[in-house]
Amino acid sequence: MQISLASLEVFMLAGVRIAAFLVIAPPFSHRTIPGRIKAMLAVGLGLVATPRAAAAAHDGAGTAIASGTAQFMGDLVMQVVIGGALGFLVAMVFAAVQAAGGLIDLFGGFQLAAAFDPMSQTSSAPFQRLYTLTTVVLLFASNAHHMIIAGLARTFDALPLGVPLNLAAMAQAVTGGITGLFVAALQVAGPLIVVLFLADIGLGLLTRVAPALNAFALGFPLKILLTITLSAMVFLALPQIISALTDTAVTNVLEVGR
Question: What pTM was computed for the model?
């Protein structure tokens, strides 16, 4: 079996971009997925994406074959940066669900129960961990990870091998993504936050009317009860939210190459 040098270089460049993407982008970035599985997936996807990447590199402004070792190493580093940047855009979109869980923990009184999460290597409260795991499960259960992989494959057309990353488009995508993150987090957790805020106002008025009642001591179990009861409504909306976030993530990834 004969393998041309051009095909091997394209495969290595495409595989490096895919590997950097899988390390950062959810749901593949979750620590429950072993590193060997991520490496095998990157190799398999690199083999599949090689013909498309080679055709896009020859037809576009990119060059598939490096003129020397130094240029090839530079192209590898550039593909790592591109893959990491694209993965960061996807991770930033789905971080809205985790941020929504953090807001619910903050307003519902669960923030005091924050503990170290070995999966994310961060200290997170119960609802934040629950929303993160639910997002990962829904991404796999709804086959949304197929859409993310398909969007990654289309980046070889939008951003061929050998073409540097458009920093202006990346900065604009990050700015819009951060804004969308806060908006999406408020949309997910907003109704429950409003209810908890109104509960705080009601307890404050009750304390003014009957100071000896110590309504704020009763407020902690009341807010916990409201949070657990009304969080079911948010869970019912999560599948539609994950579907919308998946479309947003794929769109952001493709717009960087334009």
Answer: 0.81
Q: What percent of the chain has pLDDT over 90?
A: 8
| 24 CB-side CA count, 13 A | 20
181-204 tens-digit pLDDT:
888 888 888 888 888 888 888 877
The pLDDT value given to residue 61: 46
